[in-house]
What we know:
This protein is α/β, with parallel strands linked by helices. The chain has helices at residues 24-27, 30-38, 69-95, 112-122, 140-146, 158-167, 205-218, 268-275, 300-310, 340-351, 370-381, 414-422, 455-463; strands at 8-10, 13-15, 18-20, 42-46, 52-53, 59-60, 100-106, 129-133, 150-155, 178-182, 189-191, 225-229, 250-254, 282-285, 293-297, 312-314, 325-329, 334-338, 356-359, 364-368.
Amino acid sequence: MPMMLKPVMMSGKEVLPLIEGGKGVAVSNGESSGAWAAAGGIGTFSAVNADSVDEQGNIIRTVYHGKSRKARFEELVSQAIAGGISQAKNAHDRAGGEGRIHANILWEMAGAERVLHGVLEGARGLIHGVTCGAGMPFRLAPISAQYKVYYYPIISSARAFRALWLRSYRKFPEWLGGVVYEDPWLAGGHNGLSNAEDPEKPGDPYPRVAELRKTMNELGLQDTTIIMAGGVWFLREWSDWMDNPEIGPIAFQFGTRTLLTRESPISDAWKKRLLQLKDGDIKLNRFSPTGFYSSAVYNNFLHELYERNDREIPFMDRPADDHITPLTFGVRNREVFVTKYDRKLADNWILDGYAKALPTPDSTLVFVTPEKAKEIREDQLGCMGCLSQCRFSNWAANEAGTTGRKADPRSFCIQKTLQEIAHGAEPDSHLMFAGHAAYRFSEDPFYANGFIPSVRELVERIQIGD
Length: 466
């Protein structure tokens, strides 16, 4: 029997309580978000380094000409603003006046405030809301209010929302459109796990969301919608959340499921890979240069990172304790001291072809092939400053242009790999973000025989509970 979904008032209009989750670099675009809005929900395009398109609709790839990181960063910001405006216009046109259009931005993106101002200024009247996570976006409220658009902070705990409210949001309550609870164990992309939480022991989202509602009620936000994000697949599995006074007004965000539609811009190879995933194929890992945990498909890209980090040994600059065995590395033959056992490990790795030892900020060495060492070095030198601070390249969006720490070869250039996979590169060789429910593509009869629905077909399917 079909579910009776009640519409909700969000971003100034009555819509289905179904939100398309914004997905990173160029993956949620105007075509997919416009189609979602046209189906009656809220479409979300990514304003994180979005693609610009020419008059023929062809993607304009960014080519960096700057000789320094700061110069390339300025090019990145300019491109991000132009791309965000381009995708907002596309989404607006495709929505045809239905639903609502939101922009998604990461607060830990370098230049986030500049990009947000630029996109909202250049696309006035086309964007109805802004979702924002990956950090504590205190400035989200005043910026959104300035352009008269609603704001939707993405949080993973009631405590985080209380801090945002008390410091900033209480001054702009009329523009708070909703609060996105993104489950830190189930959602794809970057996750908001705290140091007090065990990544191996997922928490039940219900008590966490109930606690968020209790906090919001105490702040006078009884009528403000909570958006559940992460692990949402069949709405029938969430029926006890609906019309539930302990949860209150509720909507649901679909990030991973919206990857597999005909309007989704990801490659056919990526879509095919999604249809083949099995339970356990998505890993929560901490390789991201942001320092956050993230959820991604365990593929060749992640496998190499796990192996790279397994070939790691500590060293000391001078003999001490059991670190008395000398080891030299680098073009200058720098001498350090390791344990006898670790020296044997290093010798075996070198014999296996991992002949380059790279120092980390934690006084350890990781061993990689000469080819991988060259790639890491080139990626670090080519940094365009996409994050507010990056552990991989040691870039930081400050006057010095650096975190003050050594670059960390145990991580990777996130801008490079996300741009590559978003524009047709082999998905198994790049970072493939996905929520932990992505394996359900292979189990859900809706996708039998490789069926890929349109956005409208997916929205209609979701509305009946499936």
